[in-house]
Known about the structure:
The chain is an alpha/beta fold. It has a single domain, classed as Di-copper center containing domain from catechol oxidase (di-copper center containing domain from catechol oxidase). The chain is built from nine helices and eight strands. The strands form three sheets. Strands 1-7-6 form a three-stranded mixed β-sheet, covered by helices on one side. A hairpin with a 5-residue loop joins strand 6 and strand 7. Helix 3 crosses helix 8. It is globular, with a radius of gyration of 21 Å. Bound molecules: CU-O-CU linkage. CU-O-CU linkage binds next to helix 2, helix 6 and helix 7. The site of CU-O-CU linkage has 9 residues, from helix 2, helix 6 and helix 7.
Amino acid sequence: APVSPPDPTNCVPPLLPGENDVNCCPPSPIVDFEFPSHKRLRHRRPAQWVDDDYLNKYKEAVRLMRALPLDDPRNFMQQAKIHCAYCHNGYRQKGFPDHNLQVHGNWLFAPFHRWYLYFHERILGSLIGDPTFALPFWNWDNPPGMAMPAIYTDENSPLYDPFRNALHQPPVIVDLANEANILDPSKQIVNNEITMFRHVVIEGISPSLFLGKPYYAGCEPNNPGAGSLEKGPHNNVHRWTGDPTQPHRIDMGYLAWAARDPIFFAHHSNVDRIWNIWKTIPGGFRRDFNDDDWLESSFLFYDENKNLVRVKIKDCLDSRKLGYDYEYVDDTPWLNVRP
Ligand code: C2O
């Protein structure tokens, strides 16, 4: 067989006696993730309760991100394309040229999106020179947060996206079960709490039922099966937000387009928060996988310095170690609902 190109990450500087500076290895194009040396946690807060100071920072960060050169990996559209590549057959699995790499519909879902937001947030923070900057979360599991957050609906804001459902503007209450019958707001709220309880507590009784079915190297690209975290409120909020007058309900209703809407990041911030909450539910079954095929699975993301960083799932399981946490919302009413 012909020779393949070398792996530049595996270059060993040659030792030539009597010569200094003979490191002929190229600058490594991929660096391995290292935990941030942070002093203060970044606090993600509920989007319905952010103050003006915060909102101005957030808008400025997204404005700057949109204004970066189009080929800069930190540019807003490039960021959206990362999601598209990992969900829309952009990549083959290494060593399996006819198997697409897919991060939806299997156990990669929660950790992939956690890492994706992690780097997105760090880039936003670095653009405004604020390492404590944190994304907001769309608190759709809590009645005061169940409408589309108003901070995303000002047409003159960088947080706006024109491709959303015009009939679902605030104060319309989101339908977490996607049943499409119009309920009065108080009934919809109760319904949503029941939906949360079902998907997170009842159906999410084991790691694979909640986080998704195993997906190994060489696994068939057709989805092994989404967990209840992805299938339930996650998918339904995507669909509910997207514009039904557009093909595929873009932006949010179509995975390849979804991250073009800044609201995507607040939506996924809440999905990520629910993952943390799920692990605190007593009973002992609601814990992360303890399987090396999951823990050692890896992804690549650009960081705020445009370095391409290789990350592993095992390093993202504790969000506080990554330097962020969720502001405590004093009620997660659905945790105690009995349907
Ligand atoms: Cu990668 Cu909400 O989807």
